[in-house]
UniProtKB/TrEMBL annotation:
This is Tellurium resistance protein. Residues 1-168 form the TerD domain. Coiled coil: none annotated. Gene3D superfamilies: sav2460 like domains. Transmembrane segments: none annotated.
Length: 399
């Protein structure tokens, strides 16, 4: 059975458990996250444990669980499972929200759709038009006189997640301004100091090339690494992650010898946003999304062109990588030093170190040996920073 709810309407739910599905057209200009807030009778959370999001995808009670989002065709799909029989004492409502983490506004989100699935019933919530809003309360699940109900809300907040948090009583710590424009990379281990020169903390649009000094940018909740190239070949982007425990994690849509494909690591801390494949676009892009946490020491985006894609040089297709913190700073590294050798299949434009002061971006522009299908390998050097060793990792699977 199909049911429709307009903004402000509510309906009874005939079962306590089900799932919410929210979907929209995929676009590189947007970055949508789903967050659920467990609220008391005064519409406030009881603490951080009352927030369900990518880094805390479930509540201990089992009342709500956020699943990893999926790509279905040209659509991105978010799902939240719920069981209102397990709702904790003093919690009367679950508010399901969306944020647009690129801060371009929900006006850029095409064909947004929200549905509640309970048993054989599908309840579709008709969205309203949005402009500059970066946060939305989509719907509420709640108890009223022991009756389970759902309400279509579609209330927008220009300030995104911060506005939603304040609305639901979550304390938001103000970001402290940097006292100086010069910082040093902190140690991976407290007992070992990183020996690097002071670095400039930059803002605005910055271009780097091989041989130039590293820079620091402000660390924001979401940072994207976008690789762009001119049409004519099908590059694949993946990320190598070096963790605090000394492990290398490969986040890639395809596997390598002994390394299975992995689209997302650590509940979305490092996430590949999907393979663009072969299209007719003049400029192609693929995106790695970063939600850096203390477990991540460094991230290395890698550009790869499999032998099965045919030959084509990084120089010819003008490959570049842009690191954007979506708060006014973007750092771009161009493959200016790439030669015209068509048999070089792997390029590492740069490396990102996760520090307390910000994200340190270092231009590397490293290339594999001709005809090599082996991935890079990461290791800690004598200064306690991460080093990239080309052609030392596992061999990529045939694509």
């Amino acid at each position: 059975m199909k049911q429709f709810l307009q903004m402000g309407q509510n309906t009874s739910l005939h079962a306590a458990n089900g799932h919410i599905e929210i979907s929209y057209d995929i676009s590189n200009t947007i970055d949508i996250s789903l967050t659920a807030f467990l609220l008391t009778a005064v519409d406030k959370v009881q603490g951080d444990e009352g927030i369900i999001f990518y880094n805390q995808p479930s509540h201990v009670s089992g009342v709500a669980t956020l699943l990893p989002h999926e790509t279905v065709g040209q659509r991105q799909v978010h799902k939240l499972h719920f069981d209102l029989h397990k709702i904790p004492k003093d919690i009367t409502k679950i508010a399901v929200t969306l944020t647009e983490d690129h801060h371009t506004g929900f006006a850029n989100v095409q064909n947004l759709k929200a549905e509640i699935h309970v048993g054989a019933t599908t309840i579709e919530l008709a969205p309203v038009s949005f402009t500059k809003e970066n946060g939305i309360v989509v719907l509420e699940l709640y108890l009223r006189n022991n009756e389970m109900k759902a309400k279509s809300i579609w209330r927008g907040f220009n300030s995104g997640l911060e506005g939603l948090c304040k609305n639901f009583g979550v304390e938001v710590e103000a970001q402290q301004e940097a006292a100086t424009t010069s910082v040093s990379t902190p140690p991976i281990e407290e007992s070992k100091k990183v020996v690097v020169p002071s670095l400039e903390k930059v803002k605005g649009n910055v271009n780097l090339s091989k041989g130039q000094k590293s820079v620091i940018i402000e660390k924001t909740p979401v940072i994207t690494a976008t690789v762009s190239w001119e049409t004519g070949t099908d590059y694949d982007i993946y990320a190598l992650v070096y963790t605090k425990s000394g492990k290398q994690i490969d986040v890639a849509m395809f596997g390598a010898s002994g390394t299975p494909p992995l689209q997302s690591y650590d509940n979305g801390a490092v996430e590949h946003m999907g393979d663009i494949g072969r299209t007719n676009q003049t400029t192609k892009t693929e995106v790695i999304k970063l939600r850096l946490n203390p477990n991540i020491v460094a991230v290395v985006p890698v550009v790869y062109s499999a032998q099965s894609n045919g030959t084509g040089s990084f120089h010819r297709y003008k490959v570049s990588m842009s690191i954007d913190n979506h708060n006014g700073t973007s750092v771009t590294i161009h493959a200016n030093n790439a030669n015209k050798n068509n048999r070089i299949y792997t390029c590492v434009p740069g490396i990102l170190h996760n520090t307390d002061e910000g994200v340190m971006i270092s231009p590397l522009e490293l290339y594999s040996k001709p005809d090599s299908e082996f991935r890079p390998k990461l290791k800690i050097d004598k200064n306690n920073t991460v080093e990239v060793l080309m052609d030392q990792g596992p061999k990529n699977d045939y694509k």
